[in-house]
Amino acid sequence: MNKKNILFIINPISGGKNKRGFKRRALQYLDKNLFSADFVFSEESHHAEVLAKEGLASGCDYIVAVGGDGTINEVAKVLVGTETPLGIIPEGSGNGLARTLNIPKDQKAAVSLLNKQRIDEIDSGFINDVPFFNMAGMGFDALISSRFAQEDFRGPLGYMKTVLSEISHYKPLTYNITIDGELYNREAFMVSIANSPQYGNDAYISPEASIKDGLLDVCIVKPFHWVLFPKMIYHLFSKTADKTEYVEIIQGKNIRIERSKKEEVHVDGEPLSLDKDFTIKVLPKSLQVIC
């Protein structure tokens, strides 16, 4: 039996977790009769993308992202439309895509899952030409993604600290949103484009969203007084965000957004600079994933 070449691309700082012992642990759980493994560490933003391109060019059979949704994004964008599957070892702060795909958070279980070589196809979203796989957004959550990227304190507590420092003085924007030809004018606290149901940490903005239905869920969060924030958090974690009067969800394939002013945007939690207006689309079943 010919062994498959598998490349692990490791983000050493994702989720505030130390990855120095990952190679040793992974080799304990990986089936060496099936795989010949290499391990590389990303050193800066966008380096995982470079490493993924090198792995693809060298003929790797599988490329595994060891990190959070941002690391997964960097690797996955290289693999979209190819026959090379993405593997995921969830080591981020939220792990939204991994949770949606039921990939275990436990390292032993996640690495052992690779041995099964069970592959599925999922959709990819594109904001202009930039891919995302879990969630893209604008408004308050994009502001938080931008601030969080500058923080030294990672993990869920660091994220919540950033939220609490910004929420009381954030001003909503006006959006003209065209979804499959129909125009919606909305004032919004934030607008999330959901390929999967959740942001991460089991916080569900669009509980019925599917990463395999060829649709994106446009989740419009209407302005609310910041004292209602605990109630909104309850809805996210009880999978009832779509039941509250503050959230409107519209599905579509081709989306255009025009904002009242230029602000931060994020793709899979990573900040992205865009003009006020941009387009969003879905590419169905365009990424192979080991899950």
Any chance you could write out the topology, listing elements then pairs?
Blueprint: E1 4-10, H1 22-29, E2 35-41, H2 47-57, E3 62-67, H3 69-79, E4 86-90, H4 96-100, H5 107-116, E5 119-127, E6 130-132, E7 135-139, H6 140-149, H7 155-166, E8 173-179, E9 182-188, E10 190-194, E11 198-200, E12 203-204, E13 216-221, H8 229-237, E14 247-252, E15 254-259, E16 265-267, E17 270-272, E18 277-290
Parallel strand pairs: 1-2, 1-3, 3-4
Antiparallel strand pairs: 5-6, 5-18, 7-10, 7-16, 8-9, 8-15, 10-13, 11-12, 13-14, 15-18, 16-17
Helix pairs in contact: 1-5, 2-3, 6-7
Q: What's the total helix number? A: 8
Q: How many domains is the backbone divided into?
A: 2
Give the overall silhouette: globular
- C-alpha-based Rg, rounded: 19 Å
**What is the CATH topology classification name of the largest domain?**
Tumour Suppressor Smad4
Based on the coordinates given, report the CATH architecture of the largest domain: Sandwich
Estimate the mean pLDDT confidence. 93
The low-confidence parts are: none
The ordered string of helix (H) and strand (E) elements is: EHEHEHEHHEEEHHEEEEEEHEEEEE
CATH class term of the largest domain: Mainly Beta
The rounded distance between the terminal residues' Cα atoms is 22 Å
Largest sheet: 6 strands, antiparallel
Number of strands: 18
Question: What portion of residues is helical?
Answer: 25-40%
* Beta strand %: 35-45%
Structural class: alpha+beta
Read across the widest sheet, the strand sequence of neighbours is 6-5-18-15-8-9
